[in-house]
Amino acid sequence: MAEKLAPEKRHAFVQNGQTVFEWDQTLEEVNMYLNLPPNVPPKQFYCKIQSTHLELGIKGNPPYLNHDLSCPVKTDSSFWTLEDDIMHITLQKREKGKTWPSPILGQGQLDPYSTDVEQKRLMLQRFQEENPGFDFSQAQFSGNCPDPRTFMGGIHTG
To answer: Which backbone phi and psi does 4 adopt, to 5 degrees?
Structure first.
């Protein structure tokens, strides 16, 4: 059932008409996806993940990204992989359930509507995690959505 609450689509950060990266998030992590230039050996790429900063690029060149992160991450459980010319970066949120407006501070921020949609989806993921026998994939909120970080099991049935 949890897969029904997975991100439906990736968000894209586009600059000057080109996609810099795509991303999505779950309760516990933010995933970034970057298309890599062809004809560069995989060993030439690097990615340095710090608690509040991300740097990546091709060795011997200026970094492609060198920015502060929107929120702190757990560096010991954050990592990156290369597969089929795509760099996939998994950033483990330090604050589980926090809705990130973008992986990179001040770049490609979600609009208020998209932020609201993300927060509601993460809240439903939290419900699902805390109540594994129920299917919340069709649930909707009336009024304001609680904060997925601070919600403490307020589901009551029958």
So the answer is: -70, -20
CA 112/CA 132 separation, integer angstroms: 30
Please tell me the distance from the alpha carbon of residue 52 to that of residue 72, in angstroms, as a whole number.
5
DSSP code at position 122:
H
Separation CA 63–CA 17 (nearest Å): 20
Q: From the first residue on, what is the mean pLDDT of each consecutive set of 10 residues in the chain (158 residues)?
A: 61 91 94 92 95 96 95 97 94 93 88 83 76 68 66 48
Q: Using CA atoms, how far apart are residues 70 and 102, in angstroms rounded to an integer?
A: 6
DSSP reduced 3-state for 15? strand
Q: Which helix (H) or strand (E) holds 79?
A: strand 73-83
